[in-house]
Amino acid sequence: MNINDAVWDNYDSSGQIKAKLELIKSWIPEDVKTIADIGCGNGLITNYLGMSYDVTGVDISQKALAHLKTKKVMASATCLPFPNLSFDLVFSSEMMEHLTAAETEKVASEFARIGSHYILISVPNHEQLAKSMVKCLGCKNPYHAYGHLQVFTKRRLKMLFPGFSCVKSLVFGPTERAFNPILLFLNHYIAGQYFHPTTPVVCPVCRREDFVFRSNLLSKAVNLMNRAISCPKPYWLMLLLKR
Predict the structure, then answer these.
(1) Which residue from 115, 148, 219, 243 has the least number of CB within 10 angstroms?
(2) CATH code where residue 108 lies
(3) Of 195, 174, 178, 192, whose CA–CA distance to 229 is shortest?
(4) pLDDT per residue over 11-42, tens digit each?
């Protein structure tokens, strides 16, 4: 994962994650007492759930874990240091999209190994990765602004956990427009405009934090055309799975 640690100091400045808290809690079954929050980041959700449950936060960033008020473990999601079936529920929010395909398979296997009853996962809803590509100002490498590598649908998530059944699913949250592939090509390769993130980013190749920032009449026209022909859809997908 190529995430700038500085992001944890002002994480969720828009308040979108806070808006999910009550919904997440309402999905947790009544028989759950222990929760493992894998890829917990700075613990915004972890600390909230920790007021009602026995929660252990897990992340690979020591800086992120410093914000946790619950039990915490620094570890990779691909190799979790817990016994089999050690948590009633395994929870993960906006983490699996940062993994490679091989890592995704390992993480799904680890979730199934340590989760005795339930798995609750939230990921971007059928995300269009190309839309959020940043171009490094130094090496000119294009990369995803938030380090996303995977695209998930309800069907793909369910297939990752063959020993579990889907209790319920939901697409929700702020809406986002897809970008017409032809118009996106024009933006990237003719107008020279890539995504302009407002959060800290770091190039996975040269580690520079500055990026190409360009806007012109063509890119503005392309963006207007896309708004006219594309439909917004909810950004998040959440599934509750039961063994």
Answers:
(1) 243
(2) 3.40.50.150
(3) 178
(4) 555 557 777 899 999 999 999 999 999 999 98
